[in-house]
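Help needed: design a sequence for this.
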């Protein structure tokens, strides 16, 4: 009985730890994977919500509904039950931050691992992806392939958020 209890405790702790390892990968071919799920036009939000395994805090902003997953530092905009945007917060103090916490996971844009220390110059150098920074506050992926557009926002030179939007 003692070993069964110990085994169950270990399994629960590993499961809780595994839940926190959010992996986001935007590939050079324009595909966005969150965990193993490929996000594209009409991808049902309930599938992503179930994989995030957390009840979201729901907010409404300018007529749009967002599910905030504060333990991950992400927000998901839902329109007609489909994922419309996936927002990652790197600096919760920035003005446009949705989540109350910062990103807890890994994010790759191609082979470049994005961290909260990333600067605009880093986005301009990502191999295979052409980011154009039209202002000190924003870089946009030009000529994005696939269903996803990518926007990185900065505040005072610090990466504040990245938004993956599903094209109409």
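Sure. Designed sequence:
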């Amino acid at each position: 009985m003692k070993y069964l209890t110990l085994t169950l405790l270990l399994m629960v702790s590993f499961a809780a730890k595994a839940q926190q390892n959010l992996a986001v990968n935007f590939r050079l071919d324009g595909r966005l994977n969150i965990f193993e799920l490929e996000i594209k036009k009409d991808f049902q939000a309930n599938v992503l919500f179930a994989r995030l395994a957390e009840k979201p805090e729901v907010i409404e902003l300018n007529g749009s509904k967002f599910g905030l997953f504060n333990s991950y530092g992400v927000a998901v905009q839902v329109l007609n039950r489909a994922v419309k945007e996936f927002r990652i917060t790197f600096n919760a103090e920035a003005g446009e931050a949705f989540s109350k916490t910062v990103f807890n996971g890994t994010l790759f844009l191609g082979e470049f691992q994005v961290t909260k220390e990333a600067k605009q110059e880093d986005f301009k150098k990502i191999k295979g992806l052409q980011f154009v920074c039209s202002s000190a506050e924003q870089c946009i992926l030009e000529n994005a392939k696939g269903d996803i557009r990518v926007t990185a926002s900065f505040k005072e030179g610090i990466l504040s958020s990245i938004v993956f939007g599903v094209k109409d």
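Residues 1-19 have pLDDT under 50 and may be disordered.
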